Amino acid sequence: EHSVDVEVWLRPDEGIAARLAAVGAADRLQPDAAVAQGGLFAVTSDAFVAAFAVDASEAVVRIACHRGLCPDKDAALAMAHRAAANVAVAANFIDPAKDSPRPFVPRGNVKGRAERIWLPLSRLWLPIR
Q1: Residue 97: band (very low, low, confident or very high) from pLDDT cuts 50, 70, 90
Q2: Rounded CA separation 24/117 (Å)
């Protein structure tokens, strides 16, 4: 109840207009200029749902703000505008293909799942993928 669902499609294969139309049809959204230029909005039984395109980053955003977090339309629109401002900055997106260097952490201090395992097979530590 106190949550927000955010989905972002960065450079969708079918195009921005087609993805926005598909999202709008799936959620039965209606045009609403208060969300953004060409934005869509709907009120459901448990959430306020908005969808819009961000031309600066070539992305389509769908945001559903549930009633516990957004008690009225104004709060939901504020959340959508905040999401639009963050999506407009291209540096906020993570490139999953980028290989970032990881420092050596001794085995006893590792918390969670390791992405890379280091083995002392020689005088220098060698990364094993």
Answers
A1: confident
A2: 44
